[in-house]
Amino acid sequence: MVPDSMTAKTSFAKRKSKAANRKPSKPRKDFPLYAHSSGQWAKKVRGRLHYFGTWDDPIAAEKEWDRQKFALLEGRDPEEPIVGETLGWLCNAFVESKALQKERGELSERAFKDYRRVCKEVAAHFGKGRRLDSLRPASFERYRNTFPKTWGPTSINNHLRLVRVLFKYANDIEATQREIRYQIGLKSVPKSVQRKHQAKQPAKEFTAAEVWSLYQAAPQPMRAFVLLGLNAGYGTMDIAQLRIDDIDFESQWLGVLRGKTGLARGCWLWPETVKELRTAIEKKPHTTQPSLEPLAFITRNRRPWGVDGESNNPLAQAFFSLKEAAGIVKPGVGHYALRHTFATIASGAMDQQVVDYIMGHKDNSISGGYREGIDPKRVKAVCQHVRKWWLAGKPKAAKR
Predict the structure, then answer these.
(1) Does 179 map to a domain?
(2) What is the DSSP string of 95-129?
């Protein structure tokens, strides 16, 4: 005789088998739900099963899924009312705050434009009408997964830093009833990953022979630009903003506040650099514009070689043309690599304090806070060390 429990199990298995046979197919391949044996369309989210409507109305079930999906994916109750300010409101308030900082001289034009760009990108992803209270850690993790595959660790970290500033501002002004927890989803790329990525990239520096090739192939004022990069560690914006009265030709000294950091920096100029600077300034196109007259260099079109906040940099473009003319094939390595080269070679002079001073880097040590200046003799010694390296790489004249 068959036990009652066995009969019950067999009966349940038959009913389940019949229900499975009656299950409808998905209306289309990308339909987000599946037919559950209970007679409803369902989906498992974050380890829990959720139901969205009966088999006979898949359209209504999908609409219900669309209504609830963001809340479920973020681990919150879909019926929880979301109130408060929107992301669009936050972006407007944030940009206005940064604009005031810029007016006070506390923020550069470039930094302001970067913040404004990031606000547009964040609003485009989440939607301007998205309520700030609805943002959860998972929201930011999904946002980070949308970054282009072409971005390297540096680009990702720079972008994440700006986005974190935006949402920290939201927390600082108490824009929401509870703090926005963005930190987990917007973590920086680990340093170990950065190092591995960097190891695969071409070295951002030039050999002495390559610098000579650039120097000899360059017209003016590009000749001066090449030497300023190697002699003084100047980047493109440093050169574009250089004023004539920042140069002391008699003392062979270049002393300015570096635009990016506002730190004092100075440099002893090589005789070759002094010569090329004199020639370039003499050949500078005539202009009566008050903003251009003090500059050491302007383009043939009587414009600056670079403008803070603008991505179009004439100096960088001209340098790539020069690199091509010199026969140097190094993709992605531009004028800024001369600054890298200076830092690398100058470190061999064994005076890092002076190297940082020449490059305009901040000394965050305790002693750096007390130091009021650097002995010019030490600066000259470092610059001479780099010049010696450069002169040693000069190509020998071909024998006749």
Answers:
(1) yes
(2) HHHHHHHHHTTSS-HHHHHHHHHHHHHHHHHH-TT
Domain total in the chain? 2
pLDDT of residue 305: 95
Residue 201 has pLDDT above 90, yes or no: no
- Give the residue numbers spanning the domain of 97: 87-199
**293 shares its domain with 367:** yes
Q: Is the C-alpha dihedral spanning 283, 288, 292, 295 positive or negative?
A: positive
Q: How many residues does the chain have?
A: 400
In terms of Cβ atoms closer than 10 Å to its own Cβ (0-12, 13-18, 19+), residue 72 is: middle
Q: Which amino acid is at 300?
A: R
CATH number of the domain to which 250 belongs: 1.10.443.10
Domain contains 351 = yes
Neighbours of 302 (CB within 10 A): 13
| Domain match, 308 and 371 both | yes
What 3-state class would DSSP assign to 4? helix
Element spanning 268, H or E: strand 264-268
Do 306 and 241 share a structural domain? yes
Domain boundary among 160, 177, 199: 199
Model pLDDT, residue 120: 96
Q: Which two tokens stand for residue 185?
A: 């989803």
Tokens of 228: 């300023």
The confidence band for 151, taking pLDDT boundaries of 50, 70 and 90, is very high
Q: State the pTM of this model.
A: 0.67
Q: Same domain, yes or no, for 252 and 187?
A: no
Nearby residues of 362 by Cβ (< 8 Å), 6 or more positions away: 261, 263, 356, 368
Which alpha helices (H) appear in the chain, and where do they start and end? 4-22, 58-73, 87-103, 109-126, 137-144, 153-172, 191-200, 208-217, 222-232, 236-240, 271-282, 314-325, 336-346, 352-359, 366-370, 376-392
Is residue 399 included in any domain, yes or no?
no
**Residue 120 · residue 317 · CB < 8 Å:** no
